UniProtKB/TrEMBL annotation:
Phylogenetic placement of the source organism: Bacteria, Bacillati, Bacillota, Bacilli, Bacillales
InterPro entries (UniProt xref): DNA_helicase_Holl-junc_RuvA_I, Hlx-hairpin-Hlx_DNA-bd_motif, NA-bd_OB-fold, RuvA, RuvA_2-like, RuvA_C, RuvA_C_sf
Principal place of residence: cytoplasm
Role played: The RuvA-RuvB-RuvC complex processes Holliday junction (HJ) DNA during genetic recombination and DNA repair, while the RuvA-RuvB complex plays an important role in the rescue of blocked DNA replication forks via replication fork reversal (RFR). RuvA specifically binds to HJ cruciform DNA, conferring on it an open structure. The RuvB hexamer acts as an ATP-dependent pump, pulling dsDNA into and through the RuvAB complex. HJ branch migration allows RuvC to scan DNA until it finds its consensus sequence, where it cleaves and resolves the cruciform DNA.
The protein, known as: Holliday junction branch migration complex subunit RuvA
Taxonomic source organism: Jeotgalibacillus proteolyticus
Amino acid sequence: MYEYIKGEIALISTEYIVVDHQGIGYQLFMPNPFVMSQKQGQTAQIYTYQHVREDQLTLFGFPSMEEKLLFMKLLNVSGIGPKGALAILASGAPEQVIEAIENENDTFLTKFPGVGKKTARQMILDLKGKLQDVVPDYFPNLFTDPKSSLASDKKELEEAILALKALGYSEREVKKVEPALRKEALTTDEYIKKGLRLMLKLS
């Protein structure tokens, strides 16, 4: 298996790039090929994954080792194939996907193309607590410290959600603003204030 290919970015399309290495053009399917647009015509190192089927051999390319490792982890989830894993990476950064899995945020995961509630739960079941080797530098406390800031943020968010319901907002109304709140790292009071602002926009 190829670990990476280093060569000139000869072509960029909507689905793949072509890397010219010693006169051979390698077609690499990427989550977001246009991230390489500034390097077209220049030499770049692309991390690769080779997917083999009986009737097809495909090379996938990634600008970072983190994206490649997360892609490989996603392939281990039942119901997710190469195209599905590529679509997930195209729609969200590795750290966002991992944070959603670790926080069991299936609402966030179902936003990705082809990921329904069942697949999102399967991702959480199969991958939670198993992604430390993918992006250890993004969340240094996420896997080792149960009292990490992320855990604290989650607790404060839950307290804010209860407070919004106590103020008279329905379960349905709260669920509409909850995804936006989950993207933030705030205190309980700040969550409540932001939740109220979002509620006003909905009304």
